[in-house]
Amino acid sequence: MAYTYDNENIFAKILRGEIPNDTVLETEHSLAFNDIRPQAPLHVLVIPKGKYVNYDDFASNASDAEILDYTRAISKVCAMKGVAADGFRMISNAGRDGVQEVPHLHVHILGGRDLGRMLNPA
Ligand code: AMP
């Protein structure tokens, strides 16, 4: 599917330096920062610097270098925050049914406590 990227989304503004962020890690193609409304003791968002709406868009259209950098950035955040041993959860919401608030790909990395089951029953 072809996605249309909104240059005015809040993460695009963060990437342009127009609004601040609490950076955890910056790499050539990726940025990780603390979520402004944390849902767990650890709640980091990892975004690619490229203009990708969601994971499907990124996995279909990003370069190998971007995909490698992004994947490794997620691993580096887990190592930096020390959650690999006790566990963590990665979530990437997409579109209407995924209830995606910001239309720029982001992975939530959550941890630091028992996170319970993944979904509430519908
Ligand atoms: P989603 O519903 O998956 O699109 O999640 C968007 C996330 O972005 C939410 O967890 C928000 O708390 C977070 N968020 C929104 N604005 C900011 C910001 N300026 N800095 C950090 N996190 C933000």
UniProtKB/TrEMBL annotation:
A motif (Histidine triad motif) lies at residues 104-108. InterPro entries: Histidine_triad_CS, Histidine_triad_HIT, HIT-like, HIT-like_sf. The active site is at H106 (tele-amp-histidine intermediate). GO terms for molecular function: catalytic activity. It comes from the Bacteria. Pfam families: HIT (PF01230). SUPFAM superfamilies: HIT-like. Residues 10-120 form the HIT domain. This is Histidine triad (HIT) family protein. It comes from Salipiger abyssi.
